[in-house]
Write a structure and sequence with these properties.
Elements: H1 2-13, H2 18-25, H3 29-36, H4 44-54, H5 58-61
Helix pairs in contact: 2-3
Length: about 70
C-alpha cells in the first residue's frame, strides 16, 4: 500500500512526529505506527483529513502520481 509508505515519507519531510499525525486524524500514536508498518489501514475519511492538513494532493498520497503537484518548486 503505497499511501502508507507515503504517509511516513510525507510526515518525515514535514518534520512531524507520529503523535502529530495522530492528532490530525483523532487516533492514538500507536495506531499511526500500525499504519506505517502496514498492520492497519487508513479510512477514506482519514486520508482526506491528512491530505488537507499536510497540504499534499490525494493523487500523490495514494501513489497515483510520483510527484506532488501541490509542492512548491522553489
Amino acid at each position: 500500500m503505497i499511501f502508507l509508505i507515503n504517509l511516513k515519507k510525507i510526515r518525515k519531510n514535514k518534520n512531524l512526529k507520529q503523535q502529530d499525525i495522530a492528532e490530525i486524524i483523532s487516533v492514538k500514536q500507536n495506531t499511526v505506527s500500525r499504519y506505517e508498518n502496514h498492520k492497519r489501514e487508513l479510512t477514506s475519511e482519514q486520508i482526506i483529513k491528512l491530505t488537507k492538513a499536510l497540504e499534499v494532493s490525494a493523487d500523490y498520497f495514494l501513489g497515483l502520481i510520483d510527484e506532488d503537484k501541490n509542492k512548491d518548486n522553489d
